[in-house]
């Protein structure tokens, strides 16, 4: 049995920005017409980004320019240290993100963190033979109202826990680290013994505070807001220290 599974969002959680928006900035803004903007509302974010990637390619923006923009996205303070710390403690780390497989793999490799991440769940992407980046929806879902149609993070987490259990890997505790609206669904599926880490001042933090204000009791896990990865290391260390004391008495 592993003691802890830590689930990370990517944009604004591991990295301190949104990689999709960073790459979009490689395109001059006059190329993003109202018709392109409309795609976001009508067909969702993945369809919108596919069009951005097509326009980037058409404008002559190269694979290596996109790669450079992604790998220079700064890590959120303390996050690289947190992931290294979890790896050193033999904890399991996964990422569930609405970015895409190319950006996340490129960033993790250039930050020397790929070895510390067991699995990445995100929209699959790849460059075609002409050098245009193509992206697909991770899945199509219509069962979760909290999530977008291409990505229910809670469902993905449930399936992952089942999959690991089927080969004998179980977790005594799950921690979820995120910032966004689409991180709420997985957090609500966690139990009293689990931990939720919303980034302070971001959307997930606000949603959870609103729930607390409205005495909405759906959140079972304990909530700890964070500003840096060091805050999370401190909280986890406190829990482990406390558990050790409890188990000795
Ligand atoms: Mg995020």
From TrEMBL:
<feature type="binding site">
    <location>
        <position position="9"/>
    </location>
    <ligand>
        <name>Mg(2+)</name>
    </ligand>
</feature>
<dbReference type="InterPro" id="IPR023214">
    <property type="entry name" value="HAD_sf"/>
</dbReference>
<keyword id="KW-0460">Magnesium</keyword>
<feature type="active site" description="Proton donor">
    <location>
        <position position="11"/>
    </location>
</feature>
<dbReference type="InterPro" id="IPR016965">
    <property type="entry name" value="Pase_PHOSPHO-typ"/>
</dbReference>
<dbReference type="InterPro" id="IPR036412">
    <property type="entry name" value="HAD-like_sf"/>
</dbReference>
<dbReference type="GO" id="GO:0016791">
    <property type="term" value="F:phosphatase activity"/>
</dbReference>
<feature type="binding site">
    <location>
        <position position="11"/>
    </location>
    <ligand>
        <name>Mg(2+)</name>
    </ligand>
</feature>
<feature type="binding site">
    <location>
        <position position="98"/>
    </location>
    <ligand>
        <name>substrate</name>
    </ligand>
</feature>
<feature type="binding site">
    <location>
        <position position="179"/>
    </location>
    <ligand>
        <name>Mg(2+)</name>
    </ligand>
</feature>
<dbReference type="Pfam" id="PF06888">
    <property type="entry name" value="Put_Phosphatase"/>
</dbReference>
<protein>
    <submittedName>
        <fullName>Pyridoxal phosphate phosphatase PHOSPHO2</fullName>
    </submittedName>
</protein>
<keyword id="KW-0378">Hydrolase</keyword>
<dbReference type="GO" id="GO:0046872">
    <property type="term" value="F:metal ion binding"/>
</dbReference>
<dbReference type="InterPro" id="IPR006384">
    <property type="entry name" value="HAD_hydro_PyrdxlP_Pase-like"/>
</dbReference>
<keyword id="KW-0479">Metal-binding</keyword>
<feature type="active site" description="Nucleophile">
    <location>
        <position position="9"/>
    </location>
</feature>
<feature type="binding site">
    <location>
        <position position="20"/>
    </location>
    <ligand>
        <name>substrate</name>
    </ligand>
</feature>
<comment type="similarity">
    <text>Belongs to the HAD-like hydrolase superfamily. PHOSPHO family.</text>
</comment>
